[in-house]
Amino acid sequence: MTVARSLSLFVLAALAEIGGAWLVWQGWREHRGVLWIAGGIIALGCYGFVATFQPDPHFGRILAAYGGIFVAGSLAWGMVVDRFRPDRWDLIGAGICLVGVAVIMYVPRR
């Protein structure tokens, strides 16, 4: 599997998880209703399957690497959807997380 395909799977997983959590948030905290919550639950379930398409057989490694994608993706989601403006420390932290993703997933191993 190419790095590009693997990264695409991580992005798809992030959209499903972050989007699902956002839908639940909107349904409950913003009182938009049970259909929003149901949509969020479905999206969160989809997230669980997307990770299974990564080539590495180790669940812990995939989930650990995805954590870095989740951090950066959450900030990006907030910027686009909620007009959140991260400060430089948010961006530095997200960058560190993405370096961690690269090390965990894509450094050659024996």
Q: Give the termini separation.
A: 17 Å
H/E element string? Answer: HHHH
Computed structural class: mainly alpha
CA-based shape: flat
Percentage of residues assigned to helices? over 70%
Question: Spans of 5+ residues with little confidence (pLDDT < 50)?
Answer: none
Overall mean pLDDT: 95
Subcellular location: Cell membrane
Protein name: UPF0060 membrane protein
InterPro entries: EmrE-like, UPF0060
Main location: membrane
Topology:
Elements (H helix, E strand, L loop, with lengths): L2 H27 L4 H17 L8 H23 L6 H19 L4
Question: How would you characterize this protein structure?
Answer:
The protein is an all-alpha fold and 110 residues long. The chain contains four helices and no strands. It has helices at residues 3-29, 34-50, 59-81, 88-106. It is a multi-pass membrane protein.
Features:
about 110 residues; mainly alpha; flat; EmrE-like; cell membrane; transmembrane helix; UPF0060 membrane protein
Brief overview:
One of its GO terms (cellular component) is plasma membrane. Belongs to the UPF0060 family. With 110 residues, the protein is mainly alpha-helical.
